[in-house]
Write a structure and sequence with these properties.
The protein has 3 helices and no strands. By secondary structure, the chain is mainly alpha-helical. The protein has one domain. The radius of gyration is 11 Å and the shape is globular.
Length: about 50
């Protein structure tokens, strides 16, 4: 969870592979945080006109 918090706080543009892996975690809080990060990244890319 700390890794996801760090990823979210720094708004990194690094590949999301570890975040996608977290979607399969047994902990619901980890899965929820990963989903939030992915949704934020998608929204940011849409705002920039990237597909």
């Amino acid at each position: 969870m700390r890794t996801l918090d760090h990823w979210d706080a720094n708004k990194t543009t690094a590949p999301l592979d570890p975040v996608f892996d977290a979607l399969e975690d047994e902990n619901e809080a980890v899965r929820s945080k990963a989903t939030q990060i992915i949704e934020q990244r998608f929204a940011a890319e849409q705002a920039l006109g990237r597909d």
